[in-house]
């Protein structure tokens, strides 16, 4: 496989960055851990050590929380217009360093450069979108009634913790941090230990854009130490988390003693339902893209394919040919469509489902094996002749693995689609308008795309049902989480309360 076509400056910048350990960013200062400990950073291409990062603990989290707490009053008091200007400067800097961000993300996570080239653009878009909403973030409603004017306004909740995952971490960090800052909150960010590099880049960018010291703080480390300390810290008023459902449950428990608000964007086992009357060419393109892009490591991947029996066999034949031809290789090669999985531990998890599929009686139509013995590569995999009660159809594999299940009619498809613990996203392919709306209404999913792959419109709500999470991101839905709503009632016509304690006069 050929080497990267990325500009040498981007590669050189990454090499220089990783020549010394990545530090925490606390109170406007770059600092090592209180313990002096570090952890290794591996590249998924061959699992070699490419750097080290400071390993944070409760003492580091406490310093970061104290810094966020101290910075909050001034940041909250800053006008929305001023916050808007700062966040646009962050977006400008992200765009200026797009090549550096894409290269770092590919090396750190194994994501193909063809997809990471858009990571900076998406992140910049997130910052611009919320920058433009900063001035109106506090706006509420006018609710008049007889003799009174009620009106509402919103105010930032306070310092918040943001815990982000290892899949597309740069974009997902911006997805959480941008609305928090626009709302007037200060932030302590704990990125995933498997992909810490671009979190450091983002903190650098925000510092360079002029955000005041303490408004954004970064602490690297493991979930069991730094993450838990953040979820339990009394100065942190809310936790925004993206990750697996089991960890989300633990975070909710850890935040209970301090009555933290939690926003949990969790796992999915998302169905793509293809009816016989659909545009099968477009449905095939979308089904392949939504599971095999981003290495299958995305919460909204369409990991279950439900196909109506009348077109099932022919559709699967075409599908198998496409999966067989997906290009696997070096993530920095522009021709690569599927790179290595994030970490050896995750590789082991994904590969375990190959044996599970065979044991359960499904057919491994394509793939089902590790690719080579260097790095975390697997062949794109297609399971057929599956049933909804199989583990491969129920559990989130989180890799380039698609399970195909046939269905008979609308009722059968809806039963199978809803027959999982998750309810994040669903994709429906049909040219029957009535069926499309009726079926969508019956799906237990927070987001549904009809005749489309996942195409995000930033003002719309993003989030799931059941084990897929709590709360919604996107548009003003994000402000509902990062802000408190206050009602103010004004007496307009001299209303007086009943008079108590007036003796006999009270009864006259």
TrEMBL record:
Superkingdom of origin: Bacteria
Transmembrane segments: none
Coiled coil: none
Any one Gene Ontology BP term: 4-hydroxyphenylacetate catabolic process
SUPFAM superfamilies: ALDH-like
Domain named Aldehyde dehydrogenase: residues: 30-488
InterPro entries on file: Ald_DH/histidinol_DH, Ald_DH_C, Ald_DH_CS_GLU, Ald_DH_N, Aldehyde_DH_dom, DH_HpaE
Keyword NAD attributed: yes
Family indicated by similarity: Belongs to the aldehyde dehydrogenase family.
NCBIfam families assigned to the protein according to its UniProt record, in alphabetical order: HpaE (TIGR02299)
Stored PANTHER family: 2-AMINOMUCONIC SEMIALDEHYDE DEHYDROGENASE (PTHR43720:SF2)
Name of the featured protein: Aldehyde dehydrogenase
Organism: Deinococcus metalli
Lineage of origin: Bacteria, Thermotogati, Deinococcota, Deinococci, Deinococcales
């Amino acid at each position: 496989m050929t080497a990267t076509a990325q500009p040498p400056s981007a590669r050189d910048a990454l090499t220089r960055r990783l020549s010394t350990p990545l530090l925490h960013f606390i109170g406007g200062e770059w600092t090592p851990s209180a313990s002096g400990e570090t952890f290794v950073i591996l590249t998924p291409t061959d699992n070699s050590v490419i750097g080290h990062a400071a390993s944070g603990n409760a003492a580091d989290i406490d310093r970061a929380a104290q810094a966020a707490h101290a910075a909050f009053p001034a940041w909250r008091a800053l006008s929305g217009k001023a916050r808007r200007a700062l966040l646009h400067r962050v977006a400008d800097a992200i765009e200026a360093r797009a090549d550096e961000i894409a290269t770092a993300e590919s090396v750190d996570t194994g994501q193909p450069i063809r997809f990471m080239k858009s990571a900076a653009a998406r992140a910049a878009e997130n910052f611009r979108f919320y920058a433009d909403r900063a001035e109106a973030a506090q706006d509420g409603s006018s609710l008049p009634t007889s003799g009174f004017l009620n009106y509402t306004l919103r105010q930032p909740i306070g310092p918040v913790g943001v815990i982000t995952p290892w899949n597309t971490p740069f974009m997902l960090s911006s997805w959480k941090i941008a609305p928090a800052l626009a709302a007037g909150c200060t932030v302590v960010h704990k990125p995933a230990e498997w992909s810490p590099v671009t979190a450091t880049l983002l903190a650098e960018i925000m510092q360079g854009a002029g955000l005041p010291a303490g408004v954004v703080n970064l602490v690297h480390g493991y979930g069991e130490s730094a993450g838990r300390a953040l979820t339990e810290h009394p100065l942190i008023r809310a936790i925004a988390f993206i990750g697996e459902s089991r960890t989300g449950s633990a975070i909710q428990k850890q935040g209970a003693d301090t009555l933290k608000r939690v926003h949990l964007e969790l796992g999915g086992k998302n169905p793509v339902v293809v009816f016989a009357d659909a545009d099968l060419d477009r449905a095939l393109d979308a089904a392949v893209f939504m599971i095999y892009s981003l290495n299958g490591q995305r919460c909204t991947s369409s990991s279950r394919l439900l196909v109506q029996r009348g077109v099932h066999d022919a559709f699967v034949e075409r599908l198998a040919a496409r999966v067989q031809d997906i290009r696997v290789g070096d993530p920095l090669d522009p021709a690569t469509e599927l790179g290595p999985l994030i970490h050896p531990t995750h590789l082991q998890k994904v590969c375990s489902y190959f044996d599970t599929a065979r044991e359960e009686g499904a057919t491994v139509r394509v793939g089902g094996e590790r690719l080579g013995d260097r790095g975390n590569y697997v062949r794109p995999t297609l399971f057929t002749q599956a049933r909804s009660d199989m583990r491969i159809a129920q559990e989130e594999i989180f890799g380039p693995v698609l399970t195909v299940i046939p269905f008979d009619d609308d009722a059968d498809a809806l039963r199978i689609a809803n027959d999982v613990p998750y309810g994040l996203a669903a994709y429906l392919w049909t040219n029957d308008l009535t069926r499309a709306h009726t079926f969508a209404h019956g799906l237990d999913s927070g987001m549904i795309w009809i005749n489309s792959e996942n195409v995000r419109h930033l003002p719309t709500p993003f989030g799931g049902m059941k084990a897929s999470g709590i709360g919604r991101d996107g548009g003003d839905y994000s402000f509902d989480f990062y802000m408190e709503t206050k009602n103010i009632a004004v007496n307009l016509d001299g209303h007086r309360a009943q008079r108590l304690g007036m003796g006999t006069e009270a009864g006259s």
